[in-house]
């Protein structure tokens, strides 16, 4: 069985170099059409992209989403990405802190506060690992890295493909209820690429969860990542299972649209965000901010390195700003209220998974 360190190294290499995107499924954000404003009546420089999340002011609604930690290479990547977030005014997510919980000696690979003293930093742990921890142990993970909030990730699909992965997902909701009540910092319930459905959203609201990162389908397929690992290890049954579920999940656009009316304080749209227009579309559906993982990792690991990652984020910001001018939106609250037309498959997902309206059900 691979060690956590080996698995993390495999994940970084596969995500940086191999095709581990969804094959046929997209985010469905392409079904969101923002409405052109031919008379914007403002300057491009009037557009204000800023937002306050978890008490931290961001210059733009962008988060470099949770990726790594636990090895020397992971530590270098965390510090590079966190320092970009600090310089640019974005949020930054650490990868799963399971490794540091098991081996406190690797905690340094998660420590980024010296290069990101003011940035929004999100801690990260899996719900299955959190279930086995006391609330104080989970709080230590937050405090050790100076995080502003803790992402608790849900990833049953990838675990099922991973040889030796978790198979018992019981008491997840109880764990989230306990952490939301007792942790003392905001808890963000986060998927890892298969999305959060409205039924799960309702259960989260019932136990007091205020913040979600939908990490929906259409970007990185974590089933795909584990399928490639299974193939490399010659594990044919795991590979066959993974091939069958490669495109499994709720598309990012559908997650955001369906969770938006539920009263969450924060909805982060992660999963397949590829452009500033995607960010604008997600915000118009009701997201508070957008997260990007693999696209930023790939840019950072390319020959262009840090400059390439910053260049990509620059392009996303420029596109978001243009989308806001062309919809006549001066700030993000205006974008979240902007008219939009939802077509195609996204309209079907929303229609078929929305609760029946009281007037239609005769109430
Ligand atoms: C290399 C890599 C490692 C990741 N590790 C974690 C993790 O430890 N915890 C977590 O919550 N999500 C993890 N993710 C998932 C991302 O945060 C994100 O939810 C997912 O990749 C979808 O976003 P994307 O399409 O922009 O990659 C990881 C993603 C990548 C690319």
Structure, explained:
- The strands form 3 sheets. Strands 4-5-6-7-8-9-10-11 form an 8-stranded parallel barrel, surrounded by 6 helices. A two-stranded antiparallel sheet has the order 1-12. A two-stranded antiparallel ribbon has the order 2-3.
- The longest helix is centred in the C-terminal third of the chain and has 22 residues, at 305-326.
- The chain contains 16 helices and 12 strands.
- It starts with a helix and ends in a 10-residue tail after the last helix.
- The model has no long low-confidence stretch (mean pLDDT 96).
- The chain is α/β, with parallel strands linked by helices and 363 residues long.
- Helix 1 crosses helix 13, helix 11 (252-259) packs across helix 16 and helix 12 (276-285) packs across helix 14 (305-326).
- It has a single domain (4-353), classed as Aldolase class I (TIM Barrel, Alpha-Beta Barrel), CATH 3.20.20.70.
- Bound molecules: flavin mononucleotide.
- Flavin mononucleotide (FMN) binds at residues 11-12, 15, 65-68, 95-96, 124, 151, 153, 190, 192-193, 215, 219-220, 270-273, 292-295, 297.
């Amino acid at each position: 069985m691979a060690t956590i360190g080996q698995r993390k190294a495999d994940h970084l290499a596969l995500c940086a170099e191999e095709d581990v995107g969804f094959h046929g499924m997209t985010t469905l954000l392409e079904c969101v059409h923002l409405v052109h404003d031919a008379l914007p009546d403002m300057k491009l420089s009037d557009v204000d992209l800023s937002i306050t999340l978890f008490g931290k002011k961001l210059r733009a609604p962008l988060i470099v989403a949770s990726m790594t930690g636990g090895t020397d290479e992971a530590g270098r990547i965390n510090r590079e990405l966190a320092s970009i977030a600090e310089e640019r005014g974005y949020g930054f997510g650490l990868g799963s802190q399971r490794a540091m919980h098991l081996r406190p000696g690797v905690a340094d690979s998660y420590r980024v506060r010296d290069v990101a003293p003011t940035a929004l930093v999100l801690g990260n742990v899996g719900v299955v690992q959190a279930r086995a921890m006391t609330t104080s142990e989970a709080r230590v993970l937050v405090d050790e890295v100076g995080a502003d909030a803790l992402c608790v990730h849900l990833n049953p699909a990838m675990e099922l493909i991973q040889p030796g992965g978790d198979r018992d997902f019981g008491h997840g909701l109880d764990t989230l209820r306990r952490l939301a009540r007792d942790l003392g910092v905001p808890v963000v319930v986060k998927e890892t690429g298969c999305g959060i459905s409205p039924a799960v959203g309702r259960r989260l609201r019932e136990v007091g969860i205020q913040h979600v990162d939908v990490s929906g389908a259409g970007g990185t397929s974590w089933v795909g990542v584990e399928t490639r690992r299974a193939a490399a290890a010659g594990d044919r049954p795991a590979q066959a299972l993974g091939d069958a579920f490669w495109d499994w999940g709720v598309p990012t656009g559908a997650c955001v649209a369906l969770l938006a009316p539920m009263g969450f304080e924060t909805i982060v749209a992660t999963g397949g965000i590829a452009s500033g227009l995607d960010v604008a579309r997600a915000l118009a559906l009701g997201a508070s901010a957008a997260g990007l993982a693999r696209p930023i990792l790939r840019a950072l690991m390319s020959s262009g390195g840090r400059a390439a990652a910053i260049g990509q984020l620059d392009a996303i910001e420029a596109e978001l700003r243009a989308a806001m001018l062309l919809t006549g939106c001066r700030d993000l609250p205006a974008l979240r209220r902007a008219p939009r037309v939802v077509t195609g498959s996204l309209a079907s997902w929303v229609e078929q998974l929305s609760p029946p309206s009281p007037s239609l059900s005769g109430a």
